[in-house]
Amino acid sequence: MTAFSHSGAATGTTARATATTAVRADAGAIALAALRITTGFVFLWAFFDKLFGLDYATKSANAWINGGSPTKGFLSRVAVGPFESTFHAWAGAWWADWLFMLGLFAIGVAVIAGIGLRVAAIAGTLMMLLMWAAEWPLAQFTSAGEPSMSTNPIIDYHIIYAVALIAVALTGAGATWGLGRQWATLPVVRDHTWLR
């Protein structure tokens, strides 16, 4: 009788531990889905703001549909860092505008939908690292002698967005509140797992 009681208690403890683990896994999946959707919205919002000039980062007169350049303002103001002249050369170039806008749109849609997260994470991380380098937070002062706008010389919001993209891609966060499961069943995605 005693052995049976201990066995029953052990089974009950195991069942509770399993249930707790399942609840934590569900909560973790939901948290990652929320991170995925909000991160994707950051990219998609930037696309629409630059396209239409929603008067947040981009004034209406500078909207891409009104002849403005999505890259000229940001890249032409780069005042520090080893890539300053490179970014100035890229500022306003038609190919830079198109790549930037296509990147913002594709990354935003893919991440919100939960599809192609690996490709979106690579592209988004590259974009964020380039933008981090353009702001060059490692410099304490700009070339004009003004203090840098960065509050942390190494980790700023560009790095946080890149890490968020990598995290949602590596954890398969597109399966919760997204189309990740359906996407993974497509023959081309099954044959080329890097498309997940």
What this model shows, in words?
This protein has one domain (29-195). It has eight helices and no strands. The chain has helices spanning 2-52, 72-76, 84-90, 94-113, 117-135, 157-170, 180-185, 187-191. Helix 1 crosses helix 6 and helix 5 (117-135) runs antiparallel to helix 6. It is elongated and about 65 Å long. The mean pLDDT is 88.
- How much helix, percentage-wise, in residues? 55-70%
Query: What is the averaged pLDDT score?
Result: 88
Individual helix count: 8
Largest sheet: none
Strand and helix order = HHHHHHHH
Number of strands: 0
Radius of gyration: 23 Å
As for the number of domains, it is 1
Contiguous uncertain segments of 5+ residues: none
Shape estimate? elongated
**Roughly what fraction of the amino acids lie in strands?**
under 5%
Class from helix and strand fractions: mainly alpha
Gap between N and C termini: 53 Å
Please outline the helices and strands.
Elements (H helix, E strand, L loop, with lengths): L1 H51 L19 H5 L7 H7 L3 H20 L3 H19 L21 H14 L9 H6 L1 H5 L5
Helix pairs in contact: 1-4, 1-6, 4-5, 5-6
